[in-house]
Amino acid sequence: MFWPEEERRRLLQGTGVPEAVEKDLANIRSEYHSVVLPFMEAHPDLFSPSVRSLELYQQLVALVMAYSFQEPLEEEEDEKEPNSPLMVPAADILNHVANHNAHLEYSTDYLRMVATQPIPKGHEIFNTYGQMANWQLIHMYGFVEPYPDNTDDTADIQMVTVRDAALQGAKDEAERLLLCERWDFLCKLEMVGEEGAFVIGREEVLTHEELTATLKVLCMPAEEFREYKDRDEWGKDETEEDNLTVSSIPSLKASWRQLLRDSVLLTLQMYATDLKTEQDLLNKEVYVKLSWREQAALQVRYGQKMILHQLLQLTS
Q1: Does the predicted model carry a pTM greater than 0.90?
Q2: Which whole number is the average pLDDT over 191-201?
Q3: HSE-up of 158 (CA within 13 Å, CB side)?
Q4: Dist CA 314 CA 257 (whole Å)
Q5: Do the beta carbons of residue 173 and residue 126 sit within 8 Å?
Q6: What is the pLDDT of residues 92-107, one digit of tens each?
Q7: Which of 8, 196, 273, 303 is spaced 20 to 30 Å from 297 by Cα?
């Protein structure tokens, strides 16, 4: 969030990072003016005018975002409010990698950092901040893992992009109207939303239920959709197709694969550069001349595009 806006947009266009940062900045500004500043003004003995600054508050929020710990909720507690973040000195000194060798365990009275595998003397101890794609790491923490080290990396296909790909293939206005009706049906089922995304990893589809339902509903024959829509218990007829993984994509129905492929092609158009450009930049002699920010942004873009191009191969 501290990068100049022009640089952030130029280097990270299409990755989802600029949009996430803009939401953060809007939330920080709103919270500062509605909660923080009035609180400081009500306690002038504690907060001198010199610290009543949006810029300082932004730095403090970033510090908490990057260094705090948050105990996850148990499965049965999903409806509860998230636990408050905690600042824990010393526990925050460990770096993160996907292939970590330690993790944090919570108890009522203390936190424990526990080795998950033997760590030889002199080797670095790596914590995990969670299963995080490179775009999330650079957004929240300001670093990335170079390709192919981050095995948790993902690429997003915006849900509305799949809708747009389907509408793009409609033959006439009647077909477009029917597709819009199907989309509204999926929205009512809370399978899709205007701001949602289908998340694809290297081996798994993290939103497999939502993506399967969307491909199924948007691609099924009109008469089948009518029957499907009128069912009392939608979704009770789970089939093998519903257990969608990356490796199972080639066995999907041809219409599903085509819609997924069209959606990937539209997603790739959102980037400012193509895969060949990124591969040229990864050439060692060129790469070392890039700034740190250029290198980090390149790793984010390249990891996402590799997943999207894998989808193109699997849907061809």
Answers
A1: yes
A2: 97
A3: 17
A4: 8
A5: no
A6: 999 999 999 999 999 8
A7: 196
